[in-house]
């Protein structure tokens, strides 16, 4: 796992707890589902997560890029973000 990916997954874990979408006792890793039977994010929660990611990782996400497959799991969202973060 790259350092960037580790940072994204850790940040997602923290954000999900901050938004009170998971509890402190629920393990969050790359296999954790974000939609449906997973955490069950609704459209507003997805947008909150995207806006927070844009600010945290200095990326811009166009509405046309918001596809359900990018939010199926923490790992899928990490893939989505990692591919958009500018190289340092």
Topology:
Elements: H1 3-18, H2 43-57, H3 74-82
Description:
By secondary structure, the chain is mainly α. It contains three helices and no strands. It has helices spanning 3-18, 43-57, 74-82. The longest helix has 16 residues, at 3-18. The protein is globular and about 35 Å long. The chain starts with a helix and ends in a 6-residue tail after the last helix.
Uncertain spans: none
Query: Which of globular, elongated, flat, extended, rod-shaped describes the shape?
Result: globular
Mean of pLDDT: 91
- Provide a count of the helices: 3
Proportion in β-strands: under 5%
Name the assembly state.
Answer: single chain
Structural class assignment: mainly alpha
Number of distinct beta strands: 0
Spell out the helices and strands N to C. Answer: HHH
Please give the largest β-sheet.
none
Q: For the CA atoms, what is the radius of gyration?
A: 12 Å
Distance between the termini: 17 Å
Top keywords for this entry?
88 residues; globular; single chain; mainly alpha
Outline:
With 88 residues, the chain is mostly helical. It has 3 helices and no strands. The model has no long low-confidence stretch (mean pLDDT 91).
């Amino acid at each position: 796992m790259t350092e960037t990916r580790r940072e994204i997954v850790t940040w997602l874990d923290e954000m999900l707890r901050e938004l009170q979408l998971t509890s402190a006792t629920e393990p969050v890793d790359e296999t954790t589902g974000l939609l449906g039977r997973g955490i069950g994010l609704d459209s507003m929660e997805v947008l909150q997560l995207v806006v927070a990611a844009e600010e945290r990782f200095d990326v811009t996400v166009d509405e046309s890029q918001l596809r359900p497959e990018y939010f199926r799991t923490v790992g899928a969202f990490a893939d989505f973000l990692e591919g958009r973060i500018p190289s340092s």
